[in-house]
Design goal:
The protein is built from seven helices and no strands. It has 193 residues and is mostly helical. 78% of the residues lie in helices and 0% in strands.
Length: 193
């Protein structure tokens, strides 16, 4: 009886493990809706939209500065027309550029992967990570950047020292140049004797 129970538990565990492994390895692509849900949970759309708005504002500012440089005496009415042009030119958003992003997620992630991401990023821990990520990145870039600069300087110094030693060794192994015998056919005045 105990033996049968042990075999049954082993079989159940093996089947359950197999089912879990199949689920984890399921290569089914995610749906478009799933990808959008993951992107929303990760804040991708909001960050992309903010980045696009900032970039487009910089373009407008540069265009305004260029216009003012070319026409420094532009009237207030002319500047108002310039502003109207900026206002009438629509700013593009995430929705207008999302298809290639969605395709990249669909190509590289399975439906199971995307669902796991959705579950995590909608959890309290996932939201806390997303909230803290900008500060973590800033601090990492600052301290990490300084450390990388320091390490690169030490690396460059050590490399230069080793290369100098190798150059010195190469110079010592270079055959001594033989002194060229003076041409006996020529005398000091250019005539032979």
């Amino acid at each position: 009886m105990i033996r049968r129970l042990a075999v049954l538990l082993l079989l159940t565990g093996a089947v359950g493990s197999s089912a879990l492994a199949q689920l984890a390895l399921d290569p089914s692509p995610p749906s478009r809706a799933q990808v959008l849900q993951l992107m929303s949970a990760m804040g991708v759309q909001q960050r992309v939209d903010a980045s696009l708005k900032s970039a487009q504002q910089k373009v407008k500012d540069a265009a305004r500065a260029s216009f003012q440089k070319s026409y420094p005496d532009a009237s207030p009415a002319m500047m108002k027309k310039l502003d109207a042009i900026f206002e009438s030119t629509p700013v593009f958003t995430f929705d207008e550029i999302s298809e290639p992003l969605i395709a990249a997620y669909e190509k590289n992630l399975s439906a199971v992967d995307v669902q796991a991401g959705i579950d995590f990023y909608t959890s309290e821990s996932g939201r806390r990570l997303l909230d803290k990520l900008p500060a973590i990145q800033r601090e990492s870039n600052t301290s990490g950047g300084a450390l990388v600069s320091q390490k690169l300087a030490a690396y460059t110094e050590e490399l230069e020292r080793k290369l100098a030693a190798l150059r010195e060794e190469a110079e010592q192994q270079k055959p001594a140049e033989k002194a060229k015998p003076a041409d006996a056919s020529k005398s000091g005045d250019g005539k032979s004797k």
